[in-house]
Specification:
Elements lengths: L2 H18 L8 H21 L3 H21 L8 H12 L12 H17 L10 H14 L11 H9 L8 H18 L3 H5 L6 E4 L3 E6 L11 E5 L9 H13 L3 H9 L27 E3 L5 E5 L2 H14 L10 H13 L4 H8 L4 H11 L13
Antiparallel strand pairs: 1-2, 2-3, 4-5
C-alpha cells in the first residue's frame, strides 16, 4: 500500500467520522488527518516490536532472497502470489549442500513461508499465505516425502561443563583473558538455561550479587516472553570454585574493571593453572562496572578487551571451539546444549517439572518432557520393569 493510498483511506475514514460528529466535537480536517497518520505510523512500530530481532533478520534475509529469485525468473515479487511462492519453495527444496543433504529442511521452508506471509501483509496483500491450499500442499508433500526427524542438540551435563573449563588455559597471557570470559559464559549459560542471544545481551546491571542466593540475573524479552515482562533468575554459589558462577563473574569483572594491561596480566598470571586448585573469591567486594557495560565482550588475540558486546552467533562458535579443544565432536552440539543439559541434569537429580520451568521459563510441562524423551529415554520407562 502506497503513502498516497494510505492518505486517501485515512481521508475517507476522517470524513465519515466528522459526518457522524457535531460541529463542536469535530477537529479541523487537516489536524485529524495528521493525527491519524501519526497513529498509523506508531501502530507499525508496535507491530515491528512484536517480532524478536532474530526473526526480523531472518525475515529480511528470506524476503531479499525471494526478490532476487523472482528477478532471475522474470516474475513479479509483488503482490505476493501463492502460485509463485509454491514454485519458489519447490526450487529451494531441490538445493543440495556439499554433503549431499538438502540445503533447506522442511522447518526452514516453513520459516520462509512465514517471512513471505509477513511481506504479503506489509505490502497490503492481507493475511493467509501460510494457510493457502497450494502452499500447504507443497509443504505437507515435502514433509511426507522426506520424513525428516527432528535433530536436537546433544546435552552438556555438569561434568561436561567442568571438563570444558578444565581444558582451557587460565594461567598464561593472553589466553587466560578469553578463558575467564568463556568460563563465565559456560556457567551462566548452563545455570540459567538462557538462550545465546539473552546471554550475549547481558549487561553488568543485569547481574547482582546476593549474599545468600549467588547471582541474581535480570533478563528481559526472551523467546517464551515476547512481551518483555522479564524474569529474575538465580545462579547459586558453587560447591567448588571451578563451577561457581559468582567466582567466574568476579574473575571476569576484575579483568573488565582493570585500568591497565599490566593489571590484567597480573590477574591472569596469578590464576592457578588447574581449576582444582582455585579458591573461592565470590564473597569479596566486587569490582564496580557501569550498569550498561556489556558482560560478554570481544577479546583480541593479544588479550585486549574490546568494550563491545559479542553476538549470539559468536557465542555459539566460541562454544564449539572450546568443545573441540576438550575432545568433543562439535557438530553434535550448539549453545542450546547448555539449556538441554540444564533440563537433563535437573531431571537426573529428580527435580520437578515446575522447578525446572522456574528457571527455563517454559510455559508448559510438555516442553520439559521433550528433553526427557530425547536425552533420558529410560527414565520412567516401563521397559526397565521387564526383568531383562
Amino acid at each position: 500500500m502506497t503513502d498516497q493510498d494510505v492518505t486517501r483511506d485515512l481521508s475517507v475514514i476522517q470524513e465519515q467520522l466528522q459526518a457522524q460528529s457535531s460541529a463542536q466535537d469535530a477537529i479541523p480536517a487537516a489536524d485529524a488527518l495528521q493525527r491519524l497518520s501519526d497513529l498509523r505510523e506508531r501502530r507499525t512500530e508496535l507491530e515491528d516490536s512484536n517480532l524478536a530481532e532474530n526473526s526480523k533478520t531472518a525475515y529480511a534475509h528470506d524476503q531479499e532472497r525471494y526478490g532476487r529469485w523472482c528477478k532471475q525468473m522474470g516474475l513479479p515479487p509483488l503482490p505476493v502470489n501463492p502460485e509463485i511462492v509454491s514454485l519458489y519453495l519447490t526450487d529451494l527444496s531441490e538445493l543440495i549442500r556439499s554433503d549431499g543433504k538438502p540445503a533447506y529442511k522442511v522447518t526452514s521452508l516453513r520459516r520462509v513461508v512465514s517471512s513471505l506471509a509477513r511481506l504479503q501483509y506489509d505490502t497490503g496483500g492481507g493475511r493467509g499465505l501460510g494457510d493457502h491450499e497450494l502452499i500447504a500442499r507443497t509443504i505437507n508433500g515435502l514433509a511426507n516425502e522426506r520424513q525428516e526427524r527432528a535433530e536436537g542438540r546433544a546435552a552438556l551435563l555438569t561434568d561436561d561443563v567442568l571438563k570444558v573449563i578444565s581444558h582451557m588455559d587460565h594461567s598464561t597471557w593472553p589466553a587466560g583473558v578469553s578463558s575467564a570470559r568463556d568460563t563465565l559464559v559456560l556457567l551462566v549459560g548452563f545455570a540459567t538455561a538462557l538462550r545465546r542471544e539473552n546471554v550475549a545481551g547481558l549487561t553488568a546491571g543485569n547481574l547482582t550479587i546476593h549474599p545468600h542466593d549467588g547471582i541474581h540475573v535480570r533478563v528481559g524479552r526472551t523467546k517464551t516472553d515476547q512481551t518483555g515482562r522479564g524474569a529474575l533468575l538465580a545462579v547459586p554459589y558453587g560447591q567448588v570454585p571451578a563451577t561457581c558462577a559468582p567466582c567466574a563473574w568476579f574473575r571476569w569483572a576484575s579483568l573488565l574493571a582493570a585500568d591497565t594491561i599490566e593489571e590484567r596480566m597480573a590477574l591472569v598470571l596469578s590464576t592457578p593453572r588447574n581449576p582444582d586448585d582455585w579458591q573461592h573469591m565470590c564473597r569479596g567486594a566486587f569490582p564496580e562496572l557501569p550498569d550498561d557495560a556489556p558482560v560478554v565482550t570481544r577479546v583480541t588475540k593479544s588479550g585486549r578487551i574490546m568494550m563491545n558486546r559479542v553476538s549470539g552467533t559468536a557465542l555459539y562458535k566460541r562454544l564449539l571451539f572450546r568443545l573441540e579443544n576438550a575432545g568433543y565432536a562439535p557438530d553434535r552440539y550448539g549453545f542450546h546444549s547448555l539449556r538441554a543439559g540444564f533440563v537433563t541434569q535437573a531431571l537426573i537429580k529428580e527435580a520437578t517439572h515446575k522447578a525446572i520451568r522456574n528457571q527455563t521459563l517454559h510455559k508448559t510441562d510438555m516442553m520439559v518432557d521433550h528433553y526427557d524423551r530425547d536425552n533420558l529415554p529410560l527414565r520412567n520407562n516401563a521397559v526397565t520393569k521387564l526383568g531383562l
